[in-house]
Write a structure and sequence with these properties.
alpha+beta, Dna Ligase, domain 1, D-amino Acid Aminotransferase, Chain A, domain 1, Rossmann fold, 3 domains, six-stranded antiparallel β-sheet, four-stranded antiparallel β-sheet, 13 helices, 18 strands, about 25% strand, binds guanosine-5'-diphosphate, binds manganese (II) ion
Length: about 375
């Protein structure tokens, strides 16, 4: 799960990483209040989970209230690479002397953590990585040994950070490593990490990706999950514990297993239709899971027909069939449903469904026939 910049900075702060004082705002008035609290001059920053906000006009300096009004007004509602800005972060502006880059992530082939540090940070870091890769000092960290201050001190020298920044930067890198490990991040990135004209080193931006496999030991991550997605369909699915991704088409899709769900998308496309979603209900598709899946798909006004594609392996088709019957008693479905049930106990499953079949609940023998039928019903 990716965090917004402001959440990343709050996360950093828990590990002692210095950032600037600031506040979030969803309206121009809130932005003014946050600016007063942070102290002028401020910087108004679009909160979207995509890089390159500065270049897109989503990061603006403001010297006074009029400028905050102007910039917050422009940035709120702005579209940045397909992401609508609903919230800004307003922080006290820094006087930048130097922009560096620092990050930790996992180097899977090496089976080690990888730190990257560069004296040439800022908005062009991707270009630096391509044209001048030696400007990035890489440090592998053995997770058993961890990162100590002595190693970090050598590292900042090797990366050619300015001498006056080195001591603070080394300490900050140890904190960033601790945040990355103890905070269960897949990525902890600061770009730019700045040296101010007053000789202070701090994080001006924050890009944090949390490892959701560790969410069981982080009850506090629930706050982040609440702001994780804007798509109301994905929110609803997440609340029901479903593996769902919203798409643009008109055929709702329910399948057991991610591979089968993706194949279902392909076959629907192949016969001229378009999927409204990806939805993998996983194994053990009982009535609760099936009802939750149908509810989510039913709530999507773009859906015109639903394709339930089940291949029983460990999952037994008769259980799924019972799940479908029970779910249909609970949820009133707007769209016709086409079922393809195959695999373990398929015969028993089809027998359970037989008395319930109608124009609105159709069974087909193969995946391809079912796809053709559902696409026809969706009116494609
Ligand atoms: P990104 O473009 O999405 O990576 O957003 P950043 O938070 O990294 O900001 C982009 C750029 O805006 C930075 O590299 C800085 O050059 C500039 N910027 C951001 N905050 C400040 C600030 O407090 N003072 C000054 N002078 N520039 C800032
Ligand atoms: Mn940045």
């Amino acid at each position: 799960m990716d965090l917004f910049e402001y959440q990343g900075k709050q996360y950093f702060a828990r590990f002692g990483i210095p950032t600037s004082a600031g506040g979030v705002a969803d309206t121009v008035d809130e932005a003014l209040a946050a600016a007063e609290a942070a102290g002028y001059p401020v910087v108004v920053k679009a909160q979207v989970k995509v890089g390159g906000r500065g270049k897109a006009g989503g990061v603006k300096l403001a010297a006074n209230a009029d400028e905050v009004r102007e910039h917050a007004g422009n940035i709120l509602g702005m579209d940045i690479k397909g992401h609508t800005v609903h919230r800004v972060w307003v922080e006290h502006a820094s006087d930048i002397a130097k922009e560096y880059y620092a990050s930790f992530t996992l180097d899977r082939p090496a089976k080690l953590h990888l730190g990257m540090l560069s004296a040439e940070g800022g908005v062009e870091i991707e270009e630096v990585a391509v044209t001048n890769p030696e400007a990035i000092a890489r440090l592998h960290v053995n997770p058993i040994e961890g990162l100590d201050l002595a190693t970090a001190t050598k590292w900042v020298a090797e990366a050619n950070l300015d001498p006056e920044a080195r001591e603070q930067a080394a300490a900050l890198l140890v904190q960033l490593y601790t945040c990355y490990v103890e905070g269960d991040c897949d990525l902890a990135e600061i770009n730019p990490l700045i040296l101010t004209t007053d000789g202070e080193v701090k994080a001006l931006d924050a890009k944090v990706t949390l490892d959701e496999n560790a969410s069981f030991r982080h009850p506090e991550w629930e706050d982040y999950a609440a702001t994780d997605t804007e798509d109301p369909r994905e929110k609803m699915a997440k609340e029901r514990g479903l593996n769902y991704i919203g798409l643009e088409g008109s055929v709702g899709i329910i399948a057991n297993g991610a591979g089968l769900a993706m194949s279902t998308l392909d076959v629907v496309n192949q016969v001229g239709g378009s999927a409204a979603n990806f939805l993998d209900i996983g194994g053990g598709a009982n009535a609760d899971v099936m009802a939750a899946a149908l509810e989510v798909i039913n709530a999507d006004p773009a859906v015109r027909a639903i394709f339930v594609n089940i291949f029983g392996g460990i999952t037994r088709v008769d259980e799924v069939a019972n799940g479908v019957v029970a779910a249909l008693e609970r949820v009133e479905i707007r769209s016709p449903i086409v079922l393809r049930l195959d695999g373990t106990n398929a015969i028993e499953g089809r027998a359970i469904l037989a008395p319930h079949l109608s124009e609105r609940l159709v069974a087909e023998a193969t995946m391809l026939e079912a796809a053709r039928r559902v696409v026809a019903l969706a009116g494609n």
